Amino acid sequence: MKTELIGVEHFSDGAVSEIIRPAAIVPEEAARAILAELQQRSVERSGCWVANARQWTRYDGPGVDSLGVPSGREIGRIEAVYGATTRYEVTIYRVTVTPEGTNAGWTVESLCNEPLAYGGLTLGTCPRAQMQPPPKPFRLSRLSSPDV
User: Fold this and answer.
1) In what helix (H) or strand (E) does residue 110 lie, and over which residues does it extend?
2) Most distant CA pair in the chain: distance in Å?
3) Contact 70, 100 (CB under 8 A)
4) pLDDT at 140 (0 to 100)
């Protein structure tokens, strides 16, 4: 299925934010492999990722400061929802590449493909959410009597 680009924003500072439509669905087995790998590759373990239930964020280097804040510069973030379609699937719906990421040559696709590869996927091969047609518009129908 082809991705429909309906929400791409290019900011003057070089950031790019894209709404993924239809949303990419990461199947359960791939999601488990990806999340385990992101934890192994976290900034706290000499990696470049911070993953939580809302987003996966990539930095340009490992390490955290004394407050636990990543010390590297943010390359970009992948916003996701866990369990939206089925209990253990992950739905990717928005991706943002920061100005630092853009300057370093990162794209929405390359940012997504790095973690998706841990589950044997790419953004292009990821299953997609089923899009429902929009509801019919509400129309007030006139009653047959003109007095009403």
Assistant:
1) helix 108-117
2) 76
3) no
4) 65
* Residue 81 token pair: 């929802």
Q: Taking Cα atoms as reference points, which of 56, 43, 52 lies closest to residue 94?
A: 56
Give the 3-state secondary structure of residue 133. Answer: coil
* C-alpha distances in Å from residue 28, one per residue of 25, 34, 118, 123, 130: 9, 10, 13, 16, 17
pLDDT block averages, 10 residues each, the chain of length 148: 49 80 93 96 96 94 94 96 79 95 96 98 93 73 58
| Residues facing 81 on adjacent strands | 91
Output the six-digit token pair for 45.
Answer: 């373990």
Q: In Å, how far are 19, 43, 107, 118 from 90, measured between CA atoms?
A: 15, 22, 21, 14
86: exposed, middle or buried (Cβ count in 10 Å: 0-12, 13-18, 19+): exposed
Give the integer Cα–Cα distance in Å for 54 and 33.
Answer: 17
- Three-state SS for 36? helix
For residue 147, what are its two tokens? 């007095």
Q: What angle do CA 112, 20, 100 make, to 5 degrees?
A: 50
CB 53, CB 31: distance < 8 Å: no
